[in-house]
Amino acid sequence: MNLNVGTLDRVLRIVAGLVLIALAATNTVGWWGWLGVVPLATGLFRFCPAYTLLGINTCPLKK
Question: What is the pTM of this model?
């Protein structure tokens, strides 16, 4: 698994994921807020399967 999520992208994904999960936990938004787990996970693992399929890499590290 190659890293393909850069620093800024990672921070934005983690923040967005946490905000969506918090909104879902407080019933501010519907069940779809729990989908915030996806950007949170991709930010934490620094790997996005969709980026691999699309050939995108925002990570400056090369392996």
Answer: 0.89
N-to-C CA span, the chain:
10
Q: Token digits for 12?
A: 């934005």
DSSP character at residue 23:
H
Which residue type, as a one-letter code, is found at position 31?
W
Q: How far is residue 55 from each of residues 5, 13, 23, 52, 60, measured CA to CA in Å?
A: 12, 19, 32, 5, 14
Instruction: Over range 9-25, report the average pLDDT.
Output: 98
The mean pLDDT value for 7-31 works out to 97
Helix and strand numbers (H, E) in the chain are 3, 0
